[in-house]
Write the structure tokens for this entry.
Amino acid sequence: MTIPVTQSQLLTKESARITRPEIQLLLCCTRTQIDPTTENRIKGLLQQDIDWTYLIQTSICHSVMPLLYRSLNSTCPEAVSKSILSQLRNFYHTNAQRNLFLTSELVNLLNLFQDNGIPAIPFKGLSLAVSAYGNLVLRQFSDLDILVHKQDINRAKQLLTSHKYQLTKELFWESHFISEGGRVNIDLHQAITPKYFSFPVDFNELWKRLQPVSLVNRTIFTFSSEDSLLILCVYIAKDCWDKRERLIQVCDIAELLRHQKIDWELLIEQATKLGITRIVLLGLLLANQLLGTALPEEILSKIQAEPTVKLLATQVCEWLFHKTDSPNVGFERKLFYLKVRERLEDIIPLLDYWITPSQTDRDFFLLPNSLSFLYYLVRQIRLVGKYGLRIRCWQK
């Protein structure tokens, strides 16, 4: 059973300070299906003095311009100036051409991996465009994300290099490649998240639950609906920590729920097992609050029972639409991580992240190799200097 959004069940737009008509219009348009109520709301907002430069820049920043154009063009194109609509249309078609090109490249890459005996799973951008949006051109993305088993990562990297892809950046959990000519960016993953953002998913179980989707007359496999939803919620929390939150992430959740059937019992069971129930409820609440996504009654009840989730959702909305240069932002992000996690064992990797010296620490104060152990002390001095005063101010 699903029930619609009501103010008694949700944070209101006012509580999240979503007051600008441009943001309200963007939220109404950031969906693949416009119901009559939302259509009337769009028409009403277009009667106001819309700052189109701000709206377009915001839609680009949040990677939702294709949806903005499609919604405006399908509901009331006559209410938008021809120049603005033409600008949006040009971007829409450019994005569509780019997506179709990347689709062809992904199919070639998957064939390459298959021919060399490397199981590879595409996820995020292109896979979501198909499974969640039902249309390749409606989701804006810029790279191809591919997951391989850890035991296959070295062979996969060598294979890409041998086919003229250049390794540009290597992290513990993913490697970044760019094609010859620079038209294709690939994020080759051996893990879903960095080590410090604990997400102890069982890869073998992920592989067992893969589901087929049709892509350009070919069947590919991607994560199950439940696993996709878990991962999308995790990425919202991770990107809030990294100061990279975007509206498209909330839209991904909303559209996945719109186009896919979810086994809610299995979802909560997996979330509980992985220690990410709070993270999942946060992602679902944001989709419910911002985009009017209907949720099952049992999910809304769980959200109501978690006051912390509501507070975190308000904070995320502030970060999404009210960017600030406040000196306390860094501390707020770290505090957010501590609040969104529910198990001590998932906080320990973050503590290791704070303790272990970074390259910035080493550049801050040059020491000979024989004294390199002192960088642990240097890091603590830097952190105290950076956050100590802010913590004191926050406590007052």
